[in-house]
Amino acid sequence: MSEIVVPVSSSVRSAAHVDAEGYQRLYEESIRDPEGFWRREARRIDWIEPFSIVKKTSFHEADFGVSWFEDGQLNVSANCLDRHLEARGDQVAILWEGDDPTESEAITYRDLHGRVCRAANMLKSMGVHRGSRVVLYLPMIPAAAVFMLACTRIGAIHCVVFGGFSPDSLAGRIQDSNATVVVTADEGRRSGRKVPLKANVDEALLRCPGVEKVLVVRHTGGAIAMQGGRDVWYHDLEASVASDCAPEPMGAEDPLFILYTSGSTGKPKGVLHTTGGYLVWSAITFHYVFDYKPGEVFWCTADVGWVTGHSYLVYGPLANGATTVMFEGVPNYPDFGRFWNVVDKYKVNILYTAPTAIRALMREGDDWVKQYSRASLRLLGSVGEPINPEAWQWYYKVVGGERCPIVDTWWQTETGGILISPLPGATDLKPGSATRPFFGIQPQIVDANGAVLDGATEGNLVLIDSWPGQMRTVWGDHERFFQTYFTTYPGKYFTGDGCRRDADGYYWITGRVDDVINVSGHRMGTAEIESALVSHVKVAEAAVVGMPHDIKGQGIYAYVTLNAGETGDEGLRKELVQWVRHEIGPIASPDVIQFAPGLPKTRSGKIMRRILRKIAEGDIGSLGDTSTLADPTVVDSLVAERAVRG
Ligand code: PRX
Which NCBIfam families match (predicted)? Predict the structure, then answer.
């Protein structure tokens, strides 16, 4: 198969921050002399107290620890706001586009600074202080960025919970983080429909006695219940607080935020990021990967409830003094031209979105795109899941008119920011490859036993040294942090991803190799969906695996064994889908539920997921060895049942 290579054009190269030689030089320096490299690069942010120690990191059990710039002090909101006021106070920081295309707002750096100071004072008046946890359960409205920054201003730890999560998921995160204050809105909006955020909070809080105050932003004006003594309207409190608030000097290793993410086992983990390293990482990656130039308009379509929304909607852009677009809506409302309409409306220069959105739009044909000029676009980005070459080509040719390089950025909630990606002026592109490591990143490919594989090869992706943006711990469970990431391959960070490296040294992420599935770029632990299913009274056992899905990348395929006496019919299927939506949220809805009289298990009782995955994929010709199963006939009945379903 001949491989497609899209070389860097000379016009892109000459305008870019770095070319191929520049990348090579900086990359080599970052590996040879990390101390020197990061001592210099960390100065792209402002320090209240400069650091003297750059790095203390070890992935080995004996002296395990990750810390960067540890004796430095800084404030994140001051870096994202105050330091820009003199030069670009009147420049737009956030361009907000509502779900309803007639609603929008442009917020300058000066205006944002004022809002953040007032929000910080509101939080203080509710008893929030340094180290307090504040849960933000908000729609994609400016208040989300305002309250994230307000927390950082006073040293509180924010924990953003995606507005699509159920009351139950919200309650779990509030309990685990021990938050005392929740900030929410009356309702969110999504494709013209309303999302009952405050009502969800009310339901969640029945199980969260530790929450003292709920601050409510009026967004839709929909009717909601306010609980006296606990619930406070934003607009009521706003008038009574001062519009200045001094930024709190924070230690570089003080916690900045917690973000929950699914793993292969148990309940979601609270990924903790800290102040200095995270900000340096989000700032430097934003600068180089998006090759950002002052005055440009950057649009990351991710929700602030995910890490992409943290690093590339809020912190990376604002630390760089950029104009960042925040979009409340979805790509297909009011119609399939919405993205391109927004691109033209705000003259977006850089668009950063997910393969699932690209595939969904590609399916609707080129006309929706071509109705709009898109002349402002200069660079396109992709994140969240592998992008299939067909979608890449469509993005490149139709959306970008073959003018705009695509940065396919590989990273994770745990990594804080982009780790493997092309740099627009430096890296020849190959559709489907995240290409090369960013500065300071040392990937290795290992086999199942941990042997390092050299050259062109395929295996599991590990990283052998730390980078400033790395997560520091699992909130409340440091042991779980070590166990999850550093014991599979001792002394190395295990990403959970499979990866191929080609003869040019390019990395191709092949997807998760653990029990995590990636649905529309959102990470779901199969264990979580299984535990939601088995909490239904009629369900005895459940096993969930991923299946190929044209739009979502992966779909959710659930095998369900019912309690004796129950019958699996269409009605129960629908009920179980609703049940999972209610327990976790719509993103966890199973695409297929197959009722199974039994699940394939080894004699020691372990479910053989490999077999279930093959059946879900329809690849029943290569089920492999089933002789070790306790009852091999189980497989035959699963295959027969699947054949009936088609
Ligand atoms: O499997 C990889 C996939 O998404 C996982 C991380 O998910 P999450 O923590 O939710 O963060 C998503 C946004 C950074 C990874 O382990 N992934 C992310 N980006 C890519 C990707 N897979 C292939 N190519 C990518 N560009």
Answer: Ac_CoA_lig_AcsA, PRK00174.1
Report yes or no on whether pTM surpasses 0.90: yes
Contact 487, 478 (CB under 8 A): no
| Judgement on whether residues 575 and 495 belong to the same structural domain of the protein | no
Q: Are 351 and 491 in the same domain?
A: yes
Percent of the chain's residues with pLDDT above 90: 93
pLDDT computed for residue 1 by the predictor: 47
- Give the CATH number, domain containing residue 543: 3.30.300.30
Q: 150 vs 153, 251, 259, 323, CA distance in Å?
A: 5, 17, 17, 19
Does residue 263 form part of some domain? no
Is pLDDT of 263 > 90?
Answer: no
Q: Is the CB of 408 under 6 A from ligand 1?
A: yes
Q: How many domains would you assign to the chain?
A: 3
> Which H helix or E strand runs over 197?
helix 197-205
Q: Which residues are annotated as a binding site for CoA?
A: 308, 332, 520, 581
What is the Å distance from ligand 1's center to 354 Cα? Answer: 10
Q: Judge whether residue 442 has pLDDT over 90.
A: yes
Q: What pLDDT is stored for residue 252 in this prediction?
A: 98
Q: How far is the CA of 413 from the centre of ligand 1 (A)?
A: 8
Are 395 and 528 part of one and the same domain?
no
> What's the pLDDT band for 646 if we cut at 50, 70, 90?
low
For all residues of the chain together, what is the average pLDDT?
Answer: 96
Query: Letter for the amino acid at 127?
Result: G
Using a 6 Å cutoff on CB, does residue 518 contact ligand 1? Answer: yes
What separation in angstroms does the CA of 436 have from each of 31, 406, 408, 426, 429? 14, 13, 10, 10, 10
How many angstroms does the Cα of residue 519 sit away from the middle of ligand 1? 11
Mean pLDDT of 22-36: 98
Domain that holds residue 177: 109-251
Please tell me the residue having the least CA distance from ligand 1 atom 12.
384
| Residue 260 located in a structural domain | no
Domain termination residue (choose one: 208, 235, 251): 251
ipTM above threshold 0.95: yes
Binned at pLDDT 50, 70 and 90, residue 229 comes out as very high
Same domain, 528 and 504: no
Exposed/middle/buried for residue 592 (C-beta within 10 Å: 0-12, 13-18, 19+): middle
The rounded Å distance from CA 590 to ligand 1 centre is 20
How many angstroms does the Cα of residue 495 sit away from the middle of ligand 1?
10
- Number of neighbours of residue 378 by Cβ within 10 angstroms: 20
Shared-domain flag, residues 467 and 559: no
242, 294: one domain? no
Q: Is the CB of 524 under 6 A from ligand 1?
A: no
Please tell me if the CB atom of residue 388 comes closer than 6 angstroms to any atom of ligand 1: no
Q: Is residue 85 part of a domain?
A: no
Q: Would you say the CB of residue 520 lies under 6 angstroms from ligand 1?
A: no
Q: What is the CATH number of the domain that holds 429?
A: 3.40.50.12780
Alpha-carbon dihedral of residues 301, 307, 313, 318, nearest 10 degrees?
Answer: -170
Instruction: Answer yes or no: is pLDDT of 286 > 80.
Output: yes
Cβ of 308 less than 6 Å from ligand 1: yes
Position 505 in a domain: yes
Q: Which residues contact 598 (CB under 8 A, 6 or more apart)?
A: 561, 631, 634, 637
Question: What one-letter code names the amino acid at 523?
Answer: R
Type of residue numbered 47: W
Task: Note whether 503 and 526 are same-domain residues.
Answer: no
Same domain, 196 and 72: no
Q: What is the CATH number of the domain that holds 200?
A: 3.40.50.980
Q: Which of 511, 541, 576 is the last residue of a domain?
A: 511
Any atom of ligand 1 within 6 Å of the Cβ of 305: no
Which residue numbers belong to the known binding site for ATP? Answer: 384-386, 408-413, 497, 512, 523
